[in-house]
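job 3f2a | input accepted
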Amino acid sequence: MAQNRATGTGNTSAGTAERENIFLFVPNLIGYSRIVLALASLYYMPLHPRTCSLLYSVSCLLDALDGFAARAYEQSTRFGAVLDMVTDRCTTACLLVFLASAFPRWSIVFQGLISLDLASHYMHMYATLTMGGSGQSHKKVDESRSWILKQYYSNNKVLFTFCALNELFFIALYLLSFSSPILSPSLLQPAPSTLQPGSPAAPKPSMLFTSPWSAGAMEMARTNKMDSTVPWILAAVSFPVMAGKQFINLVQLVKASKWLAEGDLEQRRKLGLPRPLPVKKAL
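job 3f2a | predicted structure (283 res):
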């Protein structure tokens, strides 16, 4: 969720414009902290679900704080808006990549969600900049173009709710990969016993997997690390909103595509295209 920011302007003192450092604005500093927290969560993601979930959640919640800081300190900038959007897209994509590996039979679904999220936001941002002008915010949507997008972007509470519960659903799935045998069946399939007299009854993991970072070893390390009750509740509560968020992404992609196509038609009309075909003379 990108914050609603416009171009920052420098203050004047004694008739001399002070040169401000946009990169050190308070909301942008908060944005950098979000990146640090997100990177830390990715480090703990494979084997430490509680630590990862805490760091990832704090990073997401700070998205609301930097928007508040931008308005409170009058430090809204285009750089900050893009920083927020890029951070949001990258962190969500990284989590979905992990889910695709944790639930391989559903990997095509997670790959589709990543593609839809990136494509819809890029198309919407590009259409806004090319068709609406360089100074127009991507959150400024005309109601005649899309009533759904107008309601989604114009109300900060609605925007925060959709984005927060969307992330909550994916976090719940992440936690379920450490707890639920329903969603994450074992990669270790039972095989005929080859144990000989004197062999250990339970071979060490190193005897089963040559690499401790193999898919099977990683799954065995995640098995039964936590109870699945709370993650199932969180997933059930947040699923409808997550589904709604994906529908909004689809609407955003379609509307942006049509807007760009309208611009292409107008540009071709100004260029006199398509040119009329030459009339062939009769013999």
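job 3f2a | The two ends are 67 Å apart (CA to CA).
job 3f2a | closed
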